[in-house]
Design brief:
This protein is of the alpha/beta class. The radius of gyration is 23 Å and the shape is globular. The longest helix is centred in the middle third of the chain and has 19 residues, at about 185-205. It contains 11 helices and 18 strands. The structure holds ligand LLP.
């Protein structure tokens, strides 16, 4: 902390490796590619760690693609997801030979076809279908309804595949689905799988060959004391249903979530008759999840403080918003100057951070063995406005 300042993110390289290898090894000899979802944590040291052990990547923008390439990842191990790929992004992805575009609509299929045509090449595609897993029966899929903007209705997919089949510029690879995130029960995944397997049967009957099935990411992690999915059991269940078809997964959170913490310092202590506030130097711009999703992250003292004030603390940041908190009602013994570790912050932490309130984005550090490395410098005040211009009149 002293070396890097506060607040900051700290990642464990060995945890990132172990988490990816757990997925990879669970497949045994079944054909598969575990494509880490870059959006969860796109630091190039994280991507490089994963590239070195053979990971594939799930990307949603050219920015993510370029990060993967700079970090030593290969284009042909990237699947390109996302609802609105631009022509420029599609062109670049074709140039670097991405393994597959996960296509989310008829108009996107047209765009990919026309870019492929202009380059006189074939674009590898899967159609992302929305299997309409009933969110009501599986309340843990809290994004179930929002997910409807994603993918193609399962009933419309055959038409789209037929269009793709008839195009000389499109090359059908497989089928894709992703039903949500932080899912802690295996049943919605298996319900979705049953639905897409039915569709694959229908496609086969129509002469459309599906050689890979991408089941997305979404495997939940433990933030508090929730029970979550056993990865080996999930992958065994997939393998038992799919025959010989190659499986792609796109886990993000489950690779990096528990491999990272956010460290913040108690700046001030402020108690009134109703509340005990610990005002910390970290804020919603650094770690948005608590404010945005009311997400729970465990908070632990970096050093036990037996001489602090024992209370139930709200940990609030310096930003001028009531919603600026990282945790509420936490029993801790605290003094001004204490460091706190906000746990399970490796996924959707730094990547969702911003410069709100003109706060420079924080440093990122990676621990490897008994060494630690600065993997992203803290932004400077100058960085905040060095791309801005005044109108000189
Ligand atoms: N594949 C696709 C197409 C996705 O949209 C996502 C996540 C993933 C894979 C990776 O899902 P994961 O394994 O990480 O659950 N910001 C939110 C999470 C948003 C997830 C968006 N899509 C959060 O902080 O909880």
């Amino acid at each position: 902390m002293v070396a890097y300042g506060s607040p900051l993110y700290v990642y464990s390289r060995s945890d990132v490796e172990r988490n990816w290898l757990e997925f990879d090894q669970a497949f045994g000899s079944h054909p598969h590619l575990v494509c880490y979802a870059v959006k969860a944590n796109s630091n190039i040291a994280v991507l490089n760690t994963l590239a070195k052990i053979g990971a594939g990547f799930d990307i949603v923008s050219q920015g993510e693609l370029e990060r993967v390439l700079v970090a030593g990842g290969q284009g042909n191990r990237c699947v390109f997801s996302g609802v609105a790929k631009t022509a420029k992004e599609i062109k670049r992805a074709l140039e670097v030979g991405v393994r597959c575009f996960n296509v989310e609509s008829a108009s996107e299929l047209d765009r990919i076809e026309s870019v492929a045509k202009s380059l006189n090449t074939q674009a590898p595609i899967s159609i992302r279908v929305n299997p309409n897993v009933d969110a009501k029966t599986h309340p843990y899929i809290s994004t179930g309804l929002k997910e409807n903007k994603f993918g193609v209705d399962i009933d419309d997919a055959i038409n789209l595949y037929q269009r793709a089949q008839n195009s000389e510029y499109l090359n059908i690879q497989g089928l894709d689905c992703h039903i949500g995130s932080q899912i802690t029960e295996v049943s919605p995944f298996l319900d979705a799988l049953d639905k897409v397997l039915e569709l694959i049967d229908q496609l086969n009957k129509n002469g459309i060959k599906i050689s890979q099935l991408d089941l997305g990411g979404g495997i939940g992690i433990v933030y508090d004391d929730e029970q979550t999915i056993d990865i080996q059991a999930y992958i065994d269940a997939i393998i038992s249903k799919v025959g010989k078809i190659e499986i792609i997964l796109e886990p993000g959170r489950s690779i990096v979530g528990n491999a990272g913490i956010f460290v913040t310092k108690v700046e001030f202590i402020k108690q009134n008759s109703e509340h005990s506030f610990a005002i910390i130097d970290g804020a919603m711009n650094d770690l948005l999840r608590p404010s945005f999703y009311n997400a729970y992250h465990q908070v632990l003292p970096v050093n036990e403080n037996s001489n602090g004030i024992q209370a139930s603390w709200d940990l609030v940041g310096p930003i001028c918003e009531t919603g600026d908190f990282l945790a509420k009602d936490r029993a801790l013994s605290l003094s001004q100057g204490d460091y706190l570790a906000v746990m399970s912050a490796g996924a959707y932490g730094f990547t969702m951070s911003s410069n709100y309130n003109s706060r420079p984005r924080v440093a990122e550090v990676m621990v490897s063995g008994d060494q630690h490395y600065l993997v992203r410098e803290r932004e400077t005040i100058q960085d905040l406005f060095n791309k801005e211009h005044m109108i000189n009149d």
